[in-house]
Amino acid sequence: MHHTSLIAILVAGFVLAFVFGALAQRLRLSPLVGYLIAGIVAGPFTPGFVGDQELAPQLAEIGVILLMFGVGLHFSMRDLLSVRAIALPGAIAQIAVATVLGWGLSQLLGWSHVAGVVFGLALSVASTVVLLRALEERRLIETERGRIAVGWLIVEDLAMVLALVLLPALAEIIGGGAGEEPPSVLLVLLKTFLKVGGFVAFMLIIGRRVIPWILERVAGTGSRELFTLCVLAIALGVAFGSAEMFGVSFALGAFFAGMLLNESEFSHKAANETLPLRDAFAVLFFVSVGMLFNPMILVEHPFEVIATFLIIVLGKSIAAYAIVRAFGKPDSTALLISASLAQIGEFSFILAGLGLQLDILPERGQDLILAGALLSIILNPLLFQWLDQRMRKGASTMSSRPPRAIPAIPDDLSGHVILIGFGRVGSELGRLLQAQKVPLVVIDGEDDLVEHARAAGLPSIRGNAANERVLAEARPERANTVMLAIPNVLEAGEIIARLREINPGLTIVARAHSDNEVRHLLEHGADGAVMAERELAHSLAEMVMATPAFRGDRHLPPASA
User: Fold this and answer.
1) For 476, which DSSP code?
2) CA 159, CA 91: separation in Å to the nearest integer?
3) pLDDT (tens digit, 9 = 90+) per residue, 91-135?
4) How far apart are CA 38 and CA 440, in angstroms?
5) All residues at 6 or more sequence positions from 388 whose CB lies less than 8 Å from its CB, including other chains
6) Three-class SS of residue 353?
7) What 3-state DSSP class applies to 335?
8) Where is the RCK N-terminal domain (predicted)?
């Protein structure tokens, strides 16, 4: 049965992505595997529902724009500069090795040199989603080797952005028809750099001033919907405008829009407000990529698939291991970088899609890239499990204890208060407790909020408190009190239940926004729950009763039971 409506493809995409994504999560695989399989199920190469082959790529294009906008929004030059001595030359060398290996395989398959280069580049870049998830689960992001891995990934992303800029120019150079004189290489490159330079200059001179000004005015209205729409309008508008006015790709325009927003004081709010929509369209992007994959390549060309897989898992990993060791880093760091890079993902799909669109890469090349991505993402958790086992066995070059973030929580810390969430409520609570000399440990998942807490002199842990490893770093078994200032009551309930298992004697107080939420928190083991709206109303009422007109013997009822 064929459906061609927008509603049908959205419903099928989200439902299938949820089902297979949840199944992948259950099997301790990356949800990306599930999203790609959902696309294969909805694609023309499998029986049953077939998504609209014209509409799906357009939804995928929106996904690419929002995906690249998110990359720019979280781009950190500081992270790159902190490890530039190894990440910059190391990533470039590893990209070169993987590209040469991919090009070599393409020559055996009889492809053109340009197709081989595009194929190799697509195999050289790791998935941001997969890598960061693996590092976060193991509490490695704030360690030295974790920062090297993140810096390495940033260099790879920048290299792929540059490749996306140059690929259309390359296609123009080699795309002369029969009897036509191919255009001058220098002329095409000059034209490309002039377009990109004009776009960059426009964004730095005008965009850097106009975008923050618009955001500030919209944020001042207090309308959450308008702010979200403003951010999306900037992301999509800059991407579309960059393509129409300067002839550069949607991806570059969206990436630059995210970078400029990253410099704004509203970047954190922009990231949070647009995250659900960015996630939704990113899922549709992966589903649409899966729709292009012909699973028969696994049967018809198994040796080509195996060769592609080995380049990703062995070729890249061996190159990365040798490079890191050549820089004098320990074996543990080299193994972590190798395992982190032994997979490919979103940038590979974007590059393959552009190569196919420009008639540079054959369809079989895209199928091999997708097959390599699926197999490598499935294998990646197993590589990290092997690495974890190696660490636990206490190899001579690896510590048997989990790596600890810097600054570390003092080993002798006890009788302290754990503050979970350092947003507007948590930061004010932290300031008040710190003023009373109460020993505090902060847990938050946002980089800027953790940095804010550390700048205030508070020991802080980056991560989600629902993660057992994150919670263990805060020493809850020796704590006195836990204050949950996060607004998500379901997440807070799970954290409270886990805290009760670790230390039944803890005093736990949480934040709520309704009577039902208060009930939920108390049922999960909280000693008390503060409803913010009720406390605010009580404080305002006290101010009214303190005025001369109402001052007297009358007293307000207690704020909460």
Assistant:
1) G
2) 9
3) 899 999 999 999 999 999 999 888 999 999 999 988 877 887 777
4) 45
5) 138
6) helix
7) helix
8) 414-530
pLDDT band at 447 (very low <50, low <70, confident <90, very high): confident
Q: Which residues contact 171 (CB under 8 A, 6 or more apart)?
A: 358, 359, 360
pLDDT at residue 1 in the model? 46
Class of domain 53-175+183-377: mainly alpha
Q: Could you tell me if 506 and 475 are in contact, meaning their C-beta atoms sit under 8 angstroms apart?
A: no
Tokens of 320: 């990365």
Other CB atoms within 10 A of residue 354 CB: 21
Spatial CB neighbours of 109, under 8 Å, sequence gap ≥ 6 = 304, 364
Question: pTM for the complete prediction?
Answer: 0.73
Domain boundaries, the chain: 53-175+183-377, 417-545
Range in 181-195, 214-228, 433-447 the model is least confident about: 181-195
The answer to whether the CB of 41 falls within 8 A of the CB of 48 is yes
Arithmetic mean of pLDDT, 328-350: 86
pLDDT of residue 103: 94
308: nearest Cα among 126, 103, 131, 152: 103
Give the per-residue pLDDT at 143.
75
Q: Which of 308, 245, 235, 321 is nearest to 278 (CA)?
A: 235
Report residue 418's pLDDT band, with 50, 70 and 90 as the boundaries: very high
Q: Which residues of 221-243 are buried (b: 16+ CB within 10 A; e: fewer)?
A: eeeeeebbebbbebbbebbebbb
286 Cβ contact list (under 8 Å, min separation 6): 17, 32, 35, 36, 39, 63, 346, 349
Q: What's the CATH code, domain 417-545?
A: 3.40.50.720
Classified as helix, coil or strand, 461 is: strand
Write the DSSP string, 377-400: HHHHHHHHHHHHHHHHTT-TTS-S
Q: What is the DSSP string of 262-291?
A: HTSTTHHHHHHHHHHHHHHHHHHHHHHHHH
